[in-house]
Amino acid sequence: MILPALVGVLLLGGFAAWFSERWSPAIPRWAAIVTLTLEALLLILPYSVSQQADALSSAWLAGFYGPWIPRFGIGFHLAMDGLSLLLITLTVLLGFMAVSSSWTEINKRQGFFFFNLLACLAGTVGVFLALDLFLFFFCWELMIIPMYFLISIWGHENRTDAAIKFFIFTQVGSLLMLASIVALVLIDHSHSGTYTFDYFDLLNTPLKPEAAFWLMLGFFIAFTVKLPALPFHTWLPDAHTQAPTGGSVILAGVMLKTGAYGLLRFVIPLFPDAAQQFAPVAMAMGAIGVLYAAVMAFAQSDLKRLVAYTSVSHMGFILLGVFSWNLFGLQGAVITMLAHGISAAALFMIAGALQERLHTREMGNMGGLWPALPKLSALTLFFALASLGLPGLGNFIGEFLVLQGAFSVNVLLASVSALVLILSPVYALVVIQRVFHGPVSRHSSLHDLGRREWAALGLLVLTAAWLGLSPQAVLNISAPALKQEMQNSMVTER
Amino acid sequence: MDMNLLIAIAPIVTIAGAAIAVMLSIAVRRNFALAFAIAAAGIILSLVSLGIAGQESPVRATLLIQVDAYSLFYMALSLSAGLAVLGLCYDYFKEREGENEELPLLLLTALLGALVLVSSSHFAGFFIGLEILSISLFVLIGYPLNQSKPLEGAIKYLVLSGVSSAFLLMGMALVYAQCGELYFSAIGGYMTSRDEINAMVLSGIILIVAGLGFKLSLVPFHLWTPDVYEGAPAPVAAFIATVSKGAVFVLLLRYFINTDSYDYTPLLSVLSVIAVLSILGGNLLALLQNNVKRLLAYSSIAHMGYLLVAFIAGDKVSPALAVESISFYLLAYFITTIGAFGVVSILSTPQTEADELSFYRGLFWRRPWLAAVFTLMLLSLAGIPLTAGFIGKFYIFTSAADGRLWGLLFTVIAGSGLGLYYYLRIIVAMSMNVEVAVVKPGRYGISTVTIAVLTMLLVWFGVYPGLLINVIQAVAYAME
Predict the structure, then answer these.
(1) Quick one: pLDDT at residue A56?
(2) Chain B environment of A197 (Cβ under 8 Å)
(3) Measured between CA atoms, how close is A6 to chain B, in angstroms?
(4) Are B420 and A183 an interchain contact pair (Cβ–Cβ within 8 Å)?
(5) Number of domains chain A contains
(6) What is the reported pTM?
């Protein structure tokens, strides 16, 4: 029962936030905090179960099944393994960050804002838990709509176009996935005679190689649009730049991870043979994305746009790691997901904080901020270093494992993508130099980080450092889940 | 005539009786509310009598009318839609000048035509139903006599409808000339008895499809649609978009299944081309519209294209699945379209029709509930989850994939992507931050209840469609 509660609490909390606006515009954010705290408390139980993972027969920590649309064998099937647990934890953590960064930035229609924020998180948690393909698709779509509203109502100057572009890109991708899901179910139906959308039933569907390839492509496109990987990434810089800070935090920190999660959970286990044949192409897409986005990031003058491109670059690593399909690559992808979630969220929060103070995102209009904002500048340096993959912080572990995993599969692509270790310091340090060093610009009285911002960013600093210094705790949680996925894809290999 | 048969056609008789009752009441004394009350009572009575008629089904009542689960379901759907439109009309017309008492009368006769259409299994019933429906619609579209746009729309509809009827009659004549039969099943008997494709029958059916294509506003027969939608009063536009199109589509499906016209493969190629043109044409033309009613008109063209995809799939998949998909899609489309036009109608005043996109700027902050309802309706038209439109789209995907119509399926996907853009434009306009003086909304009690019910149904069928699917499945199996 805990799994439906995980989704339900967020949804109900969203409605509570919305309606509490009647009394005072300050209540919705507290409602959001309470909701997220409840959600965090709910996660304690699965963590305690995961500590005794050896005693469990499978990697699944919790499950829930209820009938939904029996006509097509669609069930309300939720289940949680270590991978979903980690990603939901990230979701909750960044949920707090999003609320914190919207605390003063959002000054109109707060109720509806926090409703959308929490509804978006509810959809994301649903995506991480759903094991019925129809339900998965349902949640997949549901998280897009609130995000669309977040961008189009509270975004910056070009919000309308960015929001529509975001919606149409993801929607067309996901319709291709829907076509694949339906076709997969119908093929399964022609073999077994019953309709089912259940993940475990569909894992064993015998597929002709050609059919498997096209079906896999449908899923793959939907997930790489969301990830995003080259060449489907063009919506992301626009959406990020225009979104309010809270929206960017969720978008970069959590929503992109649903694409990676989908690749890991669905594409490869459902279509192992086709995915294996396709792996060189996917890995090449990842490698090119890593380098191209890093170069693009360097060329940006808009701070949020720059961070957005670094996200594309890091997501390329995830694609590389997932499609190498060995434990190193997968673990690296998982760590990268978490570490990037933290570092990108922090960088977007910093960009948001700067924008709130300076009313600009153009790095040309900044400069020499270090004396004026010492705390903020120091934290930016920290997260810029995290983002470039400094050893000791989470991103390094992720990238290292991904490269190790990819090297054993494809030496060339792994070596090429390792070149980014030269490019990423360039874009990371260029931020520091242009924004914080150099001639002092005319900004005179700027107040440094407040207590709330300090607490939020400080928490992320601790998490990033912990992830980098003691990744084994996380690896232990995700390992059973990843091994199980690898096993699933072995069983179906014929 | 047998008593049982009379019971079987009781819903149709009730509506005809209600029309006469409204007419008499107007002759005695003009009273706006009374006329609407009688009409509403007639529709409700007719809905109740569906239950009684259901006990007699399936039965062939007279030569022209077939009462079975299929026709009962669509009668119920048309009547409910008629009731919703009647409710919207009441608020829309109550403060308008002129004599508005004939409006419910015309709605009843239009409904009568729709009921005959969905239950006819004979060319004569088919034509009678279609003409009763169309003639009522001419007057309904041009009802606001002193304005030019409604009149323009009415004339356009009149002329093109006349032409399409001519096509239709010619097609029927050709089929009759070859088969010597007017009854659908008898035509089916003739068609199955011959293996080769008969050119005369084929051209007859193509002419019938062309004639009905006008009514369904499929590309290339769609030219009247935007003007008529724009000109007609909003609730009437809702009626044209739903009941009129739905009844025609239902009849076309029955004709194809009963006469085994699916065996005529060249027809399917023609239909596929029409479907692709409708989906792409409707969506592309909607992109640039700044008038919400015209936009909904183009979107309805696209939706008819989506429906046609499921229709074409009926060739490869079992007819039951095609009927099931089409029924669910039509039902979702009915709810959504009436809801969307309902919002337009609530926002309209006797002075201005709320059809310019600029009118909707900031609606979210002026009338939050209304804007939320409109958003849900638009998302349903776009096929986004939580709404019945999504399950409908899922059905279209399922039948297209089951029928291996990959080309058409990709057209549907491309069309949906395009469609999102213009639906979102309206939503964006509604969520804009503009400070507009708050206008005190008029009292629109009945319309508000109507769209509240429609919204609840929309979400219910979108989130938990199980019950509805069971009902529709029963209808679909009865058709096989």
Answers:
(1) 66
(2) none
(3) 19
(4) no
(5) 1
(6) 0.92
